[in-house]
Backbone:
């Protein structure tokens, strides 16, 4: 997400506010985010992490497979496991 006027309110809403050690100076910075949206345009999964936390490709694939499994998937579900 770029730092522009039209998304400043959204950044503030998510708490993406930093002063970079300068009192009275507020800047907005993007965190790392992942959004999985289905073909109908419905947001099915989102994760936003701090700037120092990376996202896992393996976990992303597991979540995508869980969303496509067609059932309720418990924590730590893996492809081939039973759904609830």
Residues:
């Amino acid at each position: 997400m770029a730092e522009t006027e039209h998304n400043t309110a959204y950044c503030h809403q998510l708490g993406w506010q930093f002063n970079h050690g300068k009192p009275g100076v507020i800047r907005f910075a993007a965190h790392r985010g992942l959004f999985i949206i289905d073909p109908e345009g419905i947001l099915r999964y989102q994760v936003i992490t701090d700037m120092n936390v990376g996202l896992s490709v393996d976990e992303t694939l597991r979540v995508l497979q869980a969303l496509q499994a067609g059932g309720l998937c418990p924590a730590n579900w893996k492809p081939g496991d039973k759904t609830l």
